[in-house]
Amino acid sequence: MKDYANPLLLLIVIGLLSWKITMSIEAPAAVEVWLLTLCVSGCLVNGLLAVARALSRRPALMAVVWSVVYLVLGSGAWVTLRQEQDYSTEIAAYNALHTRRTSEGGSPFTLCDAEGRTLLELAAILNKKMAVQRYLSLPEARESTAIIRKAAVLAAENGRYDILRIIARQPGGFDFNQTADGLTPLIAAVLHNRTRTVHVLVELGANPNVSDASGITPIMHAVVDENRPIVRVLMQLGADPSIRDAAGRDAFSCSRTEAMDDILKQPRQ
User: Are the C-beta atoms of 253 and 263 separated by less than 8 Å?
Assistant: First the structure.
């Protein structure tokens, strides 16, 4: 390839990646397709060039390096594309509600899709940071605490910790220990194995010992699910395994293995 071809192609890929990162999941799926196409092309061309140079006993190191660079970038684009396919229903619902709000008006706290999810909740699921910031700055946000709680739980379920940070920055703060549909955001994160989100929620003021509507604490949920890594994290964050629910059960009585018992017996942080 010409000396300028790889740097030029890399600049295009970096430009698309920057746009994608800025837009988050809002970017069109075509962005990932273009990224994947460009990276696969760069990887194949440089790979073939490296083989040709090696066969002719000429230096092939730079061609190999460029091929690896495009392989890594292409792998990232492929993973992202697959992840966003899992949210195709939410993306379609958000776009429909957004179009409806633009043409007919309405509040992001009241406009709902067929499953009853508001525009704010869908934005939280899809990690639409700029949209969530806009919605929370509206005057009606002050009267929409229940919807914001639901959005926080959905953000936690999907590991959208940046959305949780945005919610926490509301005027007057936000109480992450309140429930929505019976769950606190922390318990939602525990149930969906979102380790990083668990850390962020505690950092934002979530109490690791606050139970759900049934009186079950986060660590009890993790023990029942045999999720030892999450149990360790909760213990490090100050969870108390001796707290009992209304039926008199604690985390120890929920444990079914000696390995889990050993974790629960470790000193709390």
Answer: no
- Give the domain-ending residue among 155, 173, 191: 173
- As beta bridge partners, residue 180 has 183
CA distance linking residue 189 with residue 197, whole number of Å? 6
The mean pLDDT value for 81-109 works out to 85
Q: Are residues 167 and 93 in the same domain?
A: yes
Q: Give SS3 for 33.
A: helix
**Global confidence as pTM:** 0.75
Contact between 178 and 212 under an 8 Å Cβ cutoff? The reply is no
The residue range of the domain holding 163 is 87-173
| Alpha helix stretches (DSSP H) within the chain | 5-23, 29-55, 61-85, 88-104, 119-125, 129-136, 145-157, 161-168, 185-191, 195-203, 218-224, 228-236, 251-254, 258-264
Tokens of 133: 């910031």
Task: Kindly write down the DSSP assignment for every residue of 52-91, as one continuous string.
Answer: HHHHTT---HHHHHHHHHHHHHHHHHHHHHHHHHTTHHHH
Is the domain of 66 the same as that of 118? no
* Span 79-90, pLDDT tens digits: 666 656 678 889
Instruction: Read off the pLDDT of residues 208-230 as tens digits, 9 standing for 90 and up.
Output: 999 998 899 999 999 999 999 99
